[in-house]
Design goal:
single chain, 536 residues, Immunoglobulin-like, six-stranded mixed sheet, binds 2-acetamido-2-deoxy-beta-D-glucopyranose
């Protein structure tokens, strides 16, 4: 072990070498799963569906050797893990070559300056519809105060909508230019109706880390007879506010505290789709260890289809300015509202047909992957893979066209991004490599006057935000992480059919302090095939 550590220390010695290492070996296989009661072929990690949780502490180095035992190329991406100075590890096709069938690749992640609740998922094709996802938690270092007492236990709760069709059939529908049908159900930790089961002891308080790892629907989460206190959102400790139900949009993660303060029986845990007709609902069970009766009564109902309830809830979730984040200093000591933005990017989605096939776009460009990961093309200076500037800073209003869209951004700039949603569905956007301040959201069209209502004091910093139907959401981002970063819809069919692009955060500096060199073990593919990474 010591020798292995030494070897790794030498091999990966960059930046966080003094911080602890944690090693994982994952075997990714197909296997039978029965989430809705019928057999399906799932994607398992070490035989598990969902996959194992990653437990880590701020600044830990996480070394994960992933063996791809599927019959298709495979990649894992780390939702919310910033991979600072190291977009090569982001695990999306724009940054990282797929792991060929029968081969392995070792991810080298560092949980640099992060705390909180996140998840990982398979990023290629439509693998996410088959599993391969799991929770990631980053605990605070021992001496950094956490603004609530240690919970009695800490559970990962992955909720998401689910199809009975397998990922190859779903992908074939999309490749054929069609939209996917409505999902067949909702899962809680990979289980359908009454399958998920959590045991609690009366009087104790538990932390639940809830992530929506689904494909297309916002979900509402609630527990019969119990309140939930939101304490953390994607790495931000929040003002502790209590809710009887919580909207978790695609790709989002929340930590809540739940106290088992009711009489000893079993209670329903419910996850149901939002803003849909029909509403898909699934239940799990919160079981009191001293319970003397099974779940009873109807499961609690969710909020109405009106968006105001959800919008008001979103606005009520704020940063606890005096609490510590990953560092001992209070989260409020970074006064994001006092920094002038130097650029405004307005992004608007659209849906339509290109060459008779369904596509989705951002500012009229429907992203198509290149034959080579963009980050590798950048590193090896391979021309003709992508063009910076192939997507504009504002909606063009034009028809949808296909391109490998990459937007330039200056390293260390502080910018405003406005997501404009002129469609009548709810959207959810994720930016890899960053967390951003969600300064405002409202119905109607965004105008510069909308800035008057921004929250410039205690907005939460997170990596995934919803945009309500016919509404806008504005974020502020400090572009302090050099690399090629995916900005994407978390509505997975839309992402697959083009509603995404890459933000190339660029500096002319070649210092390792700004960006790490390509990892020595990086796979090469496409037009980068045969190129050498670095001499060992
Ligand atoms: C992965 O699991 C498969 C199926 O159980 C097995 O055949 C294979 O040897 C495993 N690979 C590794 C690297 O453990
Ligand atoms: C998906 O299901 C189809 C039948 O509907 C089957 O032919 C195919 O092999 C399955 N693929 C996987 C990866 O399970
Ligand atoms: C694949 O696994 C082997 C054996 O565990 C390891 O030595 C090697 O570095 C891995 N390959 C990559 C590309 O990570
Ligand atoms: C905010 O954090 C402080 C410092 O840890 C804590 O004492 C306080 O209870 C928190 N306030 C709220 C409203 O969450
Ligand atoms: C921000 O811009 C305002 C108005 O242009 C200016 O007065 C102020 O000094 C700027 N603040 C900073 C921190 O640069």
């Amino acid at each position: 072990m010591l020798l292995q550590l030494l070897v790794l220390f030498v091999a990966f010695a960059i930046g966080g070498a003094e911080d602890p290492y944690r090693f994982f070996t994952w075997n990714v296989t197909y296997g039978d799963i029965y989430p809705l009661g019928v057999r399906q072929q799932g994607i398992l990690i070490n035989g598990q569906f969902p996959g194992p949780d990653i437990y880590s502490v701020t600044n830990d180095n996480i070394i994960i050797n992933v063996f791809n035992s599927l019959d298709e190329p495979f990649l894992i991406s780390w939702n919310g893990i910033q991979n600072r100075r190291n977009s090569y590890e982001d695990g999306v096709y724009g940054t990282t070559c797929p792991i060929p069938p029968g081969k392995n690749f070792t991810y080298i992640l560092q949980m640099k300056d992060q705390i909180g609740s996140f998840f990982y998922f398979p990023s290629l094709g439509f693998h996410k519809a088959a599993g391969g996802f799991g929770g990631i938690r980053i605990l605070s270092r021992p001496r950094i105060p956490v603004p609530f007492p240690d919970p009695a236990d800490d559970y990962t709760i992955l909720i998401g909508d689910w199809y009975q069709a397998n990922h190859t059939d779903l992908r074939a529908i999309l490749d054929g230019g069609k939209k996917l049908p409505f999902p067949d159900g909702v899962l809680i930790n990979g289980r359908g109706l009454n399958g998920a089961f959590f045991t609690v002891e009366q009087g104790k308080t538990y932390r639940l880390r809830i992530s929506n790892i689904g494909l297309q629907n916002s979900l509402n989460f609630r527990i019969q007879g119990h309140k939930m206190t939101v304490v953390e959102v994607e790495g931000t400790h929040t003002v502790q506010t209590t809710y009887s139900s919580l909207d978790v949009h695609l790709g989002q993660s929340y930590s809540v505290l739940v106290t088992a303060d009711q009489s000893p029986q079993d209670y329903y845990i419910v996850a149901s789709t939002r803003f849909t007709t029909p509403i898909l609902t699934t239940t799990g069970v919160l079981h009191y260890a001293n319970s003397n009766s099974p779940v009873s009564g109807p499961p609690p109902g969710g909020p109405t289809i009106e968006i105001d309830w959800s919008l008001n809830q979103a606005r009520s979730i704020r940063t606890n300015l005096t609490a510590s984040g990953p560092r001992p200093n209070p989260q409020g000591s970074y006064h994001y509202g006092m920094i002038n933005t130097t650029r405004t990017i307005r992004l608007s989605s659209s849906a339509g047909q290109v060459n008779g096939k369904q596509r989705y776009a951002v500012n009229s460009v429907s992203f198509v992957p290149a034959d080579t990961p963009l980050k590798l093309a950048d590193y090896f200076k391979i021309d003709g893979v992508f063009r910076v500037g192939s997507i504009s800073d504002a909606p063009t209003g034009g028809g949808i066209y296909l391109d490998t869209s990459v937007m330039h951004a200056d390293y260390r700039s502080f910018i405003e991004i406005v997501f404009e949603n002129n469609e009548d569905i709810i959207q959810s956007y994720h930016l890899s490599g960053y967390s951003f301040f969600v300064v405002g959201m409202d119905g109607g069209q965004w105008t510069p006057a909308s800035r008057d209502q921004y929250n410039l004091r205690d907005a939460v910093s997170r990596c995934t935000t919803q945009v309500y139907p016919n509404s806008w959401t504005a974020i502020y981002v400090a572009l302090d992480n050099v690399g090629m970063w995916n900005l994407r819809s978390e509505f997975w069919a839309r992402q697959y059919l083009g509603q995404q692009f890459y933000l190339r955060v660029y500096t002319t500096s070649t210092s390792f302090r700004d960006e790490y060199p390509i990892p020595k073990n990086a796979l090469v593919c496409g037009r980068a095939s045969g190129r050498r990474t670095r001499p060992l």
